[in-house]
Amino acid sequence: MKGPQTVYAGIDPTAHALHAGHLIPLLCLFHFQLKGNKPIALIGGATGLVGDPSGRMTERALSEKAQIELNTMKLTEAIKKFFSRATAYAQERYPSRPSLPTDVQILNNIDWLRNLNLLDFLRTTGVHFRVNYMLAKDSVRTRMNAQHGITFTEFTYQLLQGYDFYHLYKDRGCTIQIGGSDQWGNILSGVELINKAELGGSGPSVTEKEKAFAMTTPLLTNSLGEKFGKSAGNAIWLDESMTSYFDFYQFFLRTTDADVHKYLKMFTLLPVDEIDAIVMDHQSHPERRVAQKRLAEEVTGMIHGNKGLEAARVATQVLFGSDYSTLRADQILNSLSGDPRLVFCEQDVMFGTSLPNLAATFRLVSSKSAARKLAQAGGLYLNNESKSDVQFRLQRSDLVDDRVAILRAGKDKHLILALN
Questions:
Q1: Listed residue (305, 383, 323) closest to 314, CA to CA
Q2: CA distances from 128 to 19, 192, 212, 238, 275 (A)
């Protein structure tokens, strides 16, 4: 390989937002871009209508065409935002780097698969694949052994993804495809098709310059091997309207010691020697969670910018800190916008109701009697101070910045009351 390369990764449009599992292939594309290569993000507007059998024991429910089109439109904007913010993050952290383009080619395979004639597809693509080769793929073999087998539709998915690589190779000069490790078989189908249809085989006659290459990345899992993502039901979305700044930050802050070294390498642009130093510091004082804090700050800053990072920090201070003297009401309201723990109430309710009754009214505790018992036991807190008087009523001087009251039941149940 000589000179800049064009490299692509596919995005499945079965949801209208990106999640943390997408970060690995997107960051790989971004690393290629940082080195002067040309990234392509390919949204599977056509293949999303078929369904990829990889990593599944049952057939996917076929998605509605209108939903796929809507998801594709939203994902296009989300991918643009990712590259724009990742570029800003890189230039802010490393100002000595030369200026980088913020744009990325975002394509949709419906544009070339929509009008592909079946007979032409069979003659140009199907003719190059043996059924035993297709049956040997892990995604197919696993499903063949499952109770319901695999449909012909999903069986041919690998040919469609292979055709995508073939099309981009011819049309855009793309020589590298990136995908998760579960995509290895599908990506190799593209390499196989390019070798046979364009290069006359895979032997020594294929020059280094012309070859196509496959690159896979690990799936996002924790130290127990558990996968994160939409299908696993525990997705951390990159869209702040679906996963708040605070929850996004906390996801990375809660990273285990066993995972944090790996995650720092996967999700940040920090140099390896700096990462190693951070981890060594962490190992000396694990209770300080230095590595987790750095990870959470780097990733939140890259995905949500400085505004999102500041909001996450403030929310963390509100919910887990002990000193609120430096906080302003507008910071608190902004950081917890959309969070169900933030509730607005009228002045007469705020100041005319006892603290235990406020806790019960706004569902911090299950009932007024339970709230009174909690207060008497010293477990009801106002702005981090225990309030055992069941008749205690708020005054304006009790509020943070004259507007916000932070109530806590026990160790970690919070209610943030704000004056309307």
A1: 323
A2: 35, 8, 16, 39, 46
CA–CA gap between residue 415 and residue 381 (Å, rounded): 10
What SS3 class is residue 35? coil
Question: Measured between alpha carbons, how far is 350 from 335 in angstroms, rounded to an integer?
Answer: 21
pLDDT at 338: 85
Among candidates 31, 118, 60, 105, which has minimal Cα distance to 302?
A: 31
| Secondary structure in 3-state letters for 138-162 | HHHHHHHCCCCCCCHHHHCHHHHHH
Contact 390, 354 (CB under 8 A): yes
For residue 38, the cross-strand partners are 6
What is the separation of C-alpha 282 from the centre of its chain, rounded to a whole number of angstroms?
25
Strand partners, 216: 179
- Calpha distance 354→320 (Å, rounded): 24
Residue 263, CA distances (Å) to 177, 193, 248, 296 in order:
23, 35, 14, 10
Q: Distance (Å, rounded) from C-alpha 156 to C-alpha 51?
A: 10
- Tokens 């793929």 identify what position? 137
Question: pTM of the entire structure?
Answer: 0.85
Q: Is the pLDDT of residue 34 over 60?
A: yes
Tokens of 196: 């046979």
pLDDT surpassing 90 at residue 305: yes
* Pick from 108, 96, 106, 86: nearest CA to 31: 86
Question: Is the separation of the CB atoms in 218 and 150 below 8 Å?
Answer: no
For the stretch 143-175, what's the b/e string if a residue is b when 16 or more beta carbons lie within 10 angstroms of its beta carbon? beeeeeebeeebbbbbbbbbbbbbbbbeeeebb
Share of the chain above pLDDT 70, in %: 90
CA 107 vs. chain centroid, Å, equals 20
Of 302, 293, 328, 301, residue with least CA distance to 314: 328
